[in-house]
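Case 257 in the screening queue. Each case pairs one protein sequence with one candidate compound; here the compound is cobalt (II) ion. For every case the pipeline is the same: read the inputs, emit a complex structure as tokens, and attach any notable structural observations.

Predict complex for case 257.
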Amino acid sequence: MFNKSQIQLKTPEQFAIMRKAGRVVALCLAEINSAIKPGMTTLELDLIARKVMEKEGAQPSFLGYHGYPAVICVSINEEVVHGIPDEKRFINDGDLVSVDCGAIIDGWHGDAAITIGVGNVKAEHQKLSDITKEALQIGINAALPGKHIGDIGFAIEKFVRSHQGLQIGILEDYVGHGIGTEMHMAPSVPNYGKAGSGPELQVGMAIAIEPMLVLGNNKVHVLEDEWTVVSSEGSFASHWENTIAITANGPEILTKL
Ligand code: MF3
Ligand code: CO
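Case 257 output:
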């Protein structure tokens, strides 16, 4: 666990810059959401984000991160996160497509992800995305100053487990994170946990909350490209993420239009 003193606290002015970076991320995701259709390649989606960032004067944070070769991650169906855009990878009708995007403005980061159901998506797969999106909102609602990091994961886990009939796995090896002058900072923000555990949430913290859920069990592995995380059972996955500021008035979503 991280020590409280390792957590970067932001001033209202710094939050204002993070809001700008977050807006650009939201713009990228909104443009991709309206453009996506069967027959497109995942590299074309990457190009959309690239152009938006260029136009808005933002830098892509994923490009070059530990050698990552693209601006966004596009993870389709059984791919959970970190799918690499490719000119040979086509979007098909019925695909569940998670798009993750990160941008930097004046050194401050924003990071968010959405899952898009393309065309005729199976009801069960759409439900998984809806549950993941709601789990994110429930996690955000728990991010109140004075509460703890563990309260976020506890709320998410409790909500996900409440779906009787649908067996849903919560990834354990991949978690949310603090964010600010770097994309990944202290503290870790798991999507499971014990109420009241972990560092206390304080005004000035910024965190990325990002539930990653799969149908069936939560076993995943990384493909030979050394990035793409897939569910080991081959079952469908969803990923939703927002960057959140902890303010005296409660949580504020920074990755919005
Ligand atoms: N944005 C991802 C996260 O939510 C990380 C992407 S890894 C990268 O933490 F290499 F693609 F940048
Ligand atoms: Co993130």
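Case 257 observations:
- The two ends are 33 Å apart (CA to CA).
- The first strand starts at residue 59 and ends at 60.
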